[in-house]
User: What shape does this take?
Amino acid sequence: MTPDTTRIDHSDKYNDPRAKITRRGLLISFAVFLFAISGAYLSIIGRRTPVDKTTEFWGQKTITALQLGERFAITAVDNRDEKPVDLTAMPGLGLLRQAFLDDRNYEWESAGDAPFESRISQNESSETIRFRISDPRGKRFDTVELDLDLSSGWIGDSAGKRSVRMNEHIRPKLRNFLNTVIHAERKRYDFRE
Assistant: This one.
């Protein structure tokens, strides 16, 4: 049996005698590695959502519900016989959760221990929806309900113990997003029947 001479051996490419590992090369590699680690760390710190004031205002139970709630739905506040709008698998739910969690989305000087219905001025129209957040499988918290007035941007717990206003930047975004979701879901539900 003769050796196969048609096969080309590329061992010279893998064992190039010109390639040398030097101290300078190792230092450059180490510097690039440290730069990458510090960039990743700063990126994580920079993108972290501040929730200190939000946690102080809503309490840990509501924050846990907003972060981990398995079921997220919109229901009617005035006991109308409308089917709840399920947001659980909706694209954009993560952004909605972040909007409610982020300290920067609230006007903290407006926070108080009164229901927001009493804080809406008479000349403003009211368009209130209720968020029902639950965790039926994990049972990490009891059901949390938050009321939001889409017109004025006031949000409060459904018991009416406290309320705060969303800032001017986030109000129109929330209103447009939620109106679109509610109308699309109701049309889809009407189409099925």
